[in-house]
Task: structure prediction
Amino acid sequence: MKKIYIGLFIFAMLFTLAACADGSRGNTGGGKLVEWYDLSPDAEFDVNTPVTVHFWHRMGGASEKLVATWIEEFKLLYPNITVVATKAAADYNELANKVALSIPAGTTPDISESYPDHIARYATAKAPLALNNFISHPTLGYSTAELQDFLPSLWAEGSSYDGEGTILSLPFTKSSEGFFYNKTYFAEHGYEVPSTWDEVFAIAADIKLREPNAIPFGYDSEDNLFISASKQWNAAYTGYNAQTGKGEVQFNNPESKTMIKYFKDKVDKGLMLTRTLNNEAFTSDIFKTGEKLYMYVGSTGGTRYAYDNDSFNLGVRVGVAPVPSRVEGQRAQIQQGPNINLFVKDSEQRMIAAWLFAKFMISAENTARFAIPSGYAPIRYTAYETPVWNTYVTGIKENPANLQEAQDKLVKEAIDMFRNNGEIFFTSAVFGQSSKTRTEVGALLVKILAYDAENEAALDAYIDSEYQKSYNFITN
Result:
């Protein structure tokens, strides 16, 4: 199996090289998005001179504690490097805004959690550090075998920023979305796990007949719903202009409006809600009550939140499957989870120190350690062969006797779902306006879902108007 994936990795790298040659991706009109730092092959790390590295993130709970443990372990390897980890924000957008503000102030961290859209935003100021010469460095970098150890699509995301193969990020804690469902309730009523949206809402309609007060299905992220559903409806969202090689905002089109009307119909019928429509509460919070909401789409990184003690003790058992599609057998869902990126500094030793800590965080052992309590997928093949992962897997109970065992089982199933369905995941075009586009289409979706139209003509007019307003807001 691993040989097959390595072959896919090589194919992915060839695809990247081809993209570089034909100028089909990214900021090809202007060459490299940022210049590659000229790290000499003879460069070495000075293990005697003290150096401090700042890592900004938005993690909390067990993840934040694990990072603190990593820092202690890393200090044993490099006593002269002090790593300061700071929870700089509560969510990714807030973190991205804080990093963006730090660029003109000259106070950027050395490493940050980041999504591709955010890095493209930073790159307009040439702030991110291009990692190509760090990765290929004969002593500080990665060997060919080590590069082949990364899951191909996760590694390839780091070079999606221009047509020159510039690598601006490393995979860190990756996930996608999962379709979580109440297995107990499904078994009681003879429901099969749905693979299409029509099947989801057929089940939802049946539940509604039996339980008029139920809202059977929830979707946590409006942004992700808009982007993944656009792909499923063959509706342009963002893309690259073949003539200029630059990114474009493309979502204002008839196919997209058809897609959004499909989900509005389900909201209007009381079959569906989203996080914002749920007063900013995760739909998993309703799901855990064991009544009224019996299926939802949420991040696999939050898999453990599908359970709590009350729901487990009520006899609820949870299953997870890929996100449903518009058409049977044509699945597509957005790849998620933050990467890490480094920033240009005036000290080479400081950049090398940051690079060494970044490598440490994404080692096979550490990516496995991060996955187990969180639900994020390990990003390297050998992570699935580590003692920590094998111990975790052998400890999974098919029939959980307590909450911890139930959560562990579901996390394993969510990670397997992610790992075994690599072909269905995609990333959207990355350019200066892509982050703004993502945020805006999520807000656009909420406005339309919540709009009380007198008739279909009024709804169509409202949709046309709001689409144009959002498009103008992003592009002007």
